[in-house]
From TrEMBL:
It comes from Paenibacillus mucilaginosus K02. This is YqzM family protein. The chain crosses the membrane at residues 24-48. Keywords: Membrane, Transmembrane, Transmembrane helix. It comes from the Bacteria.
């Protein structure tokens, strides 16, 4: 009964999860990537002029 898929509350997570920090890290990493792309595009546009 402990592995019955109809009872998800009986399944124990292998690791603790912090959804808020996971979401915040996702937004942070995505922001940094977009920021670096923007900086690179600005530098390239200034060098082309």
């Amino acid at each position: 009964m402990t592995n019955d898929p109809k009872h998800p509350e009986l399944h124990v997570y292998e690791e603790g999860r912090d959804d808020l920090m996971d979401t915040a890290m996702g937004f942070g990493v995505f922001f940094i990537i977009l920021f670096l792309i923007g900086v690179a595009a600005t530098v390239i546009s200034l060098l082309v002029k």
